[in-house]
Design brief:
This is Serine acetyltransferase. It catalyses: L-serine + acetyl-CoA = O-acetyl-L-serine + CoA. Its EC number is 2.3.1.30. It is a single chain. The chain has 5 helices and 15 strands. By secondary structure, it is α/β, with parallel strands linked by helices. It is 34% helix and 19% strand. A hairpin with a 4-residue loop joins strand 14 and strand 15. Helix 3 runs antiparallel to helix 4. The strands form 3 sheets. Strands 3-6-9-12-14-15 form a 6-stranded mixed beta sheet. Strands 1-4-7-10-13 form a 5-stranded parallel beta sheet. Strands 2-5-8-11 form a 4-stranded parallel beta sheet, with no helix packed on it. Bound molecules: coenzyme A (COA).
Length: 203
Amino acid sequence: MSEKKKGFWREAIRVTKENDPAARTALEVLLTYPGVKALAAHRLSHFLWRHHFKLLARMHSQFWRFWTQIEIHPGAQIDYGVFIDHGSGLVIGETAVVEHDVKLYHGVTLGGTGKDKGKRHPTVRHGALISAHAQLLGPIEVGANAKVGASAVVVSDVPERVTVVGIPARVVRVDGKKDIKKITTLEERREASYHSSHHPSDQ
Ligand SMILES: CC(C)(COP(=O)(O)OP(=O)(O)OC[C@H]1O[C@@H](n2cnc3c(N)ncnc32)[C@H](O)[C@@H]1OP(=O)(O)O)[C@@H](O)C(=O)NCCC(=O)NCCS
């Protein structure tokens, strides 16, 4: 998690202005962006959750789900400086971790597969872009500055600085380039790691 020198509100304004050319003033960001409201509310829900007021935390997060259409479980760990654009239908699960400068669009799920216990939701490292309606499932890690294409379904780790698209999501760019050799190597590694964690008896 990043250092918190600047504070939640200043980071929220910074990241919104950096990512949305439509954001004109700080006041407009604070008053009209559902993502800013949902993340601000999550700070209180998370505080209540950590201090064992779990039912109150769940009720508080559900109240803000009603107003913002963004559902963040109070247990999720979310850094300052996360950007949520539009946000409707966004779901973030209990054990998800989201680092600073991550961009999340509407319809994204940081969810579980239903098969894992304990840490069962994704970790999204700093600067990653998770496009509209992408579904990230399980305790996977999306590396720093990676991009996940719209409507992709991601069930295995995504290395840093790559682009993945499709169902199931595959690497299509490395550092923005279509370097077939690097892409093939990364895909072979991803497949081996997926199989060793999901089907260990096949090894
Ligand atoms: C993935 C994305 C971030 C682009 O990343 P990029 O690294 O610049 O990748 P490119 O645009 O060069 O595309 C790489 C390849 O993936 C394909 N591709 C891009 N997005 C895709 C998607 N969502 N689904 C399937 N294929 C996709 C491209 O056609 C290209 O194919 P090629 O290798 O055959 O040429 C972008 O296309 C995307 O999905 N943006 C959506 C952002 C969003 O949610 N906006 C909502 C605003 S309201």
